[in-house]
Design brief:
The protein is an all-alpha fold. The chain contains eleven helices and no strands.
């Protein structure tokens, strides 16, 4: 392993670890998303805490921080294995950020970001699937979990590489584990719907 490649992986992790949901919510609403709603720093809870603009900006930032390192790896003509490592490092950075004592988001937006430049067809199908599931179920969390779980299958169906499949399986597993509290609330009927989220916005 060369030092530049290891440095790229570390840089990808540090970029992924930037808690844009926390920074944007505090800057624009003077509120801390960790103290409201689900306590998560992702786009959904940023919207619940700071409003639609904060949620939209957090979503965009979390997607972009996934896109940038993977797009650079592709532009540098790195192997599929190294692209997978860089994508995984970026994603893990979001979930377990060193800046916040490894307590990060749930990874859905950053999952899209790392997949988009690498497996654009998978990303496109995933976006469509998420919207359909969200409209049918009225639960953001359920749509996110099911879309994440579909990721390995979509990679196989679109002839993705083995490194992409391994990364996809890891991402799907971690997104599901990060949604453990949502799964519990879905089962007991206490998970907020999209309509309740809209009503609860400041």
């Amino acid at each position: 392993m060369s030092s530049p490649l290891l440095a790229a992986v570390f840089a990808a992790y540090l970029l992924g670890a930037i808690p844009f949901g926390l920074l944007l919510t505090k800057a624009l609403s003077k509120r801390d998303p960790r103290e409201h709603g689900s306590g998560n720093i992702g786009a959904t809870n940023a919207m619940r805490t700071g409003g639609k603009l904060v949620g939209a900006l957090t979503l965009l930032a979390d997607i972009l921080k996934g896109i940038i390192p993977v797009a650079l790896a592709i532009a540098a003509d790195l192997s599929e294995a190294w692209i997978a490592v860089i994508a995984s490092a970026t994603f893990i950075g979001h979930l377990y950020p060193v800046y916040l004592r490894f307590r990060g988001g749930k990874g859905v937006a950053t999952m899209l970001g790392v997949i988009l430049p690498w497996q654009p067809l998978v990303a496109g199908i995933g976006i469509l699937l998420w919207f359909v599931l969200m409209k049918l179920s009225h639960y953001v969390s359920l749509a996110s979990i099911l879309t994440a779980l579909s990721l390995p299958l979509l990679i196989v169906l679109t002839d993705g590489s083995m490194p992409a499949l391994i990364a996809g399986m890891m991402i799907a597993t971690l997104v599901t584990l990060k949604h453990a509290s949502n799964i519990k609330r879905l089962l007991d009927g206490s998970e907020p719907t999209t309509e309740q989220d809209r009503q609860a916005q400041p």
